[in-house]
Amino acid sequence: MENKTKFDLNENPHRRYNPLTREWVLVSPHRTKRPWQGQIEETARDEQPAYDPQCYLCPGNARAGGHVNPAYEKTFVFDNDFAALLPDTPAGNFNESDLLVAESERGLCRVVCFSPRHDLTLARMSVPAIRAVVDVWAAQYRELGDLPFINHVQIFENRGAMMGASNPHPHGQIWASETVPNESVKEIAAQKEYFQKHGSGLLADYLKLEIERGERIVVQNEHFVALVPFWAVWAFETMIVSRRPVANLAQLNDAERDGLADLLRRLTIRYDNLFKVSFPYTMGFHQAPTDGKTYENYHLHAHFYPPLLRSATVRKFMVGFEMLGMPQRDVTPEQAARQLSELSETHYLD
Ligand code: H2U
Ligand code: ZN
User: Is pLDDT of 236 > 90?
Assistant: First the structure.
């Protein structure tokens, strides 16, 4: 008789543990046991002009507050004209009965233009052009992190209107803050305790395991690996992990920076090819804090969180049980990884 009591990750509802945040995700594979059947729609190509006179990020154009962008040729960094954090905020605390608690927070916010070309995205930029962006990110981490009141540097990109990006011009943001934000606090504590318990790095060990198993790897090169984490919440969520366990982008050598640029291009091309649209996502790097302490067990990585589920028009919303209980997914991380890994590395528009 068939044994129906054996727990199967591909069949049975289960929860998976995220060792980086120490939170759980509910996986419901029985809802999509079938192989891939979601429609692949040929959506309108959202081509942009190479230069948009209305764009506040294009070279030579005016921004809010009267600033004019220089005629930049590669990348361009400026202080966000609507910065969420400001460097001159006065210090202060507020506490009423341990229930109404607030602290002042200083910081700096910057915008990074990836290219003068309004119509490009990371997926459509050359590896040397992406490498220039990697160098800017590394330099900004150093420069902002070296400021005495900055203890954490969050580099990220909101891509696509669906993720709240205000402009299709290829750009990202940097928020440098006085305190370490929630997600990083969780990951730092988990990596530290894992190291104390196992005597080795959490992400170094995890990467080794994933390379051995292979089933969640999307794309890899000599220096970086992109994979769908075992505990992914978003359907096509990925993580990029450096093979050498460095703590931040500034520690990457020349070859590693080229490797990161190569992997970013190959991953984002696959994303665009998945539904033949400029694939929306929020991505960002997690790096060690810049508070002067040593973080020898911190392992540089990037997270990609894309909202699309089955097609260019079906997106995930975190509602209901997910807001009140815990996040949930149907397609398993293994299915998503297989689908992404099988896609072409030639961009559908090229
Ligand atoms: P997002 O597309 O991820 O929102 O990033 C664009 C940032 O650009 C946004 O944070 C800033 C906004 O505050 N911005 C300026 O600094 N100057 C402008 O003239 C318009 C937008
Ligand atoms: Zn532009």
Answer: yes
Provide the CA 271 distance to its chain's centre, in angstroms. 13
Domain boundaries, the chain: 64-177, 181-341
User: Which residue in 169, 171, 299, 303 is the catalytic one?
Assistant: 171
The arrangement of secondary structure in 64-177, i.e. its CATH architecture, is 2-Layer Sandwich (3.30)
Q: What's the CATH number for 181-341?
A: 3.30.428.10
pLDDT digits (tens, 9 = 90+) for 271-296: 999 999 999 999 999 999 999 998 98
Which has the higher per-residue pLDDT, 39 or 338? 338
At 115, the amino acid letter reads: S
Nearest CA to ligand 1 atom 17: 81
Location of structure tokens 């220089």: 70
Q: CA of 152: how far to CAs of 105, 174, 285, in Å?
A: 12, 10, 12
Residue 50, phi then psi, degrees to nearest 5: -65, -30
What's the predicted TM-score (pTM) here? 0.95
Any idea what the Cα angle at residue 311 is, between residues 51 and 317, rounded to 5°? 95
The structure tokens listed for 265 are 């291009």
64-177 shares its CATH topology with 181-341: yes
For residue range 118-167, list pLDDT tens digits in order.
Answer: 999 999 999 999 999 999 999 999 999 999 999 999 999 999 988 888 89
Mean residue pLDDT across the chain: 94
- Would the CB of 177 count as within 6 Å of ligand 1? no
What percent of the chain has a predicted confidence (pLDDT) above 90? 85
Q: Is the CB of 95 under 6 A from ligand 1?
A: no
Is residue 63 within 6 Å of ligand 1 at its C-beta?
yes
Is residue 171 flagged as an active site residue?
Answer: yes
What is the CA angle 315-109-23, rounded to 5?
45
Tokens for 340, please give them. 């992404």
User: What is the rounded distance in angstroms from the CA atom of residue 206 to the CA atom of residue 178?
Assistant: 30
AA letter at 95: N
What span, in angstroms and rounded, lies between the C-alpha atoms of 175 and 181? 10
- Which amino acid, 324? L
- Phi first, then psi: what are they for 54, rounded to 5°? -90, -10
24: which 2 tokens? Answer: 């759980």
C-alpha 131 – ligand 2 centre gap (Å)? 20
H-helix or E-strand spanning residue 242: strand 238-242
